[in-house]
Fold this protein.
Amino acid sequence: MKYGKVAAGEVPGLEWARLGDTLLCWTEDDDRWPAGLALEEPAAQAPGLYLVTQVGRLFQRAHPDIPVLVDKGRYLVVGPDPERAGAVPSREDVCYRMRPLTGGTTVYRTVTPARRAPDPAVRDLVKLVDEDAYRANLQALVALGTRHSLSPAFRTAAEQARDLLHGLGYATSLVPITVGSGSSLNVVAERAGEGAEPRGRVLVTAHIDSVNAVDGPAASAPGADDNGSGAAGLLELARVFSGRRTGHDLCLILFGGEEQGLFGSRQYVKALARADRDRIRAVINMDMIGTLNTPAPTVLLEGSETSRALIDDLAAAAATYTSLAVQTSLHPFASDHVPFIDASIPAVLTIEGADRGNGNVHTANDTLAHIDYGLALEIVRMNVAAAAALAEV
């Protein structure tokens, strides 16, 4: 198989895949490779091409011997030999996924969304996002040392979040879940809208657990970015919406068991009554929103065909109310938006863009020192704006 990074557009007769600003072309018949094709670098040989989707750089950490042909952080194109490819274990719920690269695929793209006319009510809510409040909630989560789903510290984090949400006027509950042979919790906070029945439901979610995949369950796992940043973002969104009237119901969920395989979100979706499932207008999920990996603050909006309209709404909110650059992908993976998408519910992951520089997740080094509050707050503002429009403030 011959492949190359093409400097121009698609080439007739060659397979292609687009990853942001990189267009990769290939053919299994080397004789079909066009002579004189303009490339960003010389053409090369690979036994096969595979697309890897990973959390942080966990695939590269686990398989340093597999050659990386295109490195876009969350997304890689790799070229292992066939025997090596078959020996890579599937860890797609928690760490990474490797699949054959399919031609005609746009893995992700950078977009320039259209700016919409600002809604005064939405703009007022966006202005309420406060760095001091966000920072305090994130520091409190990190101070626990670990939030492993089966640890006493996780229960402390869940109870503290429940109490904070209750104090903001939400109806709150701690919902037991199973994580393997153990038990953990989801934190659920709800507030009814004031519109006419039947009302829709807008969900904002994040996982509150952390993990140290290098040193084990008992090790330090501050989880500042993964996912203290997203959990603190949810708590800040809750504060912003506190006391505000909405036409539709607002439901905020902090999931447990995400790092062990999306246990909290899978069980939440499975337990939904059909009527409640049908009322969900959108699910906005925050996971790893606090590390700046690009020159400009960037957000990746990851969903599926079911989520296209929600991706467009979030991208428009980013363009209208923030300075975020926007990337989009229809390849959902390894966060709490996936169980909703699997149930045909529109859900989108909002995550820091191009996380190629983030090698700290799932280690003791995922600390506050690596948090970029400017990026995190811009992503929170985008989510506040989109949730406000969807909930009809």
Q: What stands out?
A: The chain has eleven helices and 17 strands. The first helix runs from residue 58 to 62. The two ends are 55 Å apart (CA to CA).
